[in-house]
User: What shape does this take?
Amino acid sequence: MDTIKKIFAQKLLEVKAVKLQPTEPFTWASGWKSPIYTDNRKTLSFPRLRSFVKIELCHLIQEHFPEAEAVAGVATGAIAQGALVAEELGMPFCYVRPKPKDHGMGNQIEGVVPQGAKVVVVEDLISTGGSSLKAVEALRQAGLQVVGMVASFTYGFPVAAEAFSQAGVVLHTLSDYEHVVAEAARTGYITEEQMPVLAAWRQNPAEWA
Assistant: This one.
């Protein structure tokens, strides 16, 4: 298993940014029942962890998207991390709203990035990929070249993988559902008997309940 993904999975569990409850599932805003709840914003509260996330996201960008010239964060969860990454890399930064403002200038993209720049998108959490890819589309419509996306965490849903493939967007993440479940099992957070339940949820989350 990837070392950074394992380390970050451990850190997410330690600060309770990820919670697993196979027998008492959470209800998402979509109405889905889920054995996991993720709140990566908690990582911003811990200076050393905040720095870890920033540096490792930068490493992903430097390794996979060295041609990037600017950074775009997806509102609202990835605005802070995106700005931190842009600062570390010395690049221009903007962030993308879910939709244009209904007042003022009506902006959907906030910030100034050179026209036609090669942009890497920073995201917080990937579930189905819908909101992340809407941000990509907004950037493309604004005349920017999206070279790829980095994110803190992904659930690894097949529907998300398909959506990213169809959109022509390469995604790299610091950790994922598989590594969190493995780390949770290793530390006794969950039992071996609960792992098939967790695996079944990821394959068909909409019908899991």
About this structure: The two ends are 29 Å apart (CA to CA). The chain has a mean pLDDT of 94. The helical segments are 3-14, 47-64, 79-89, 130-141, 158-167, 177-186, 195-203. The first helix runs from residue 3 to 14.
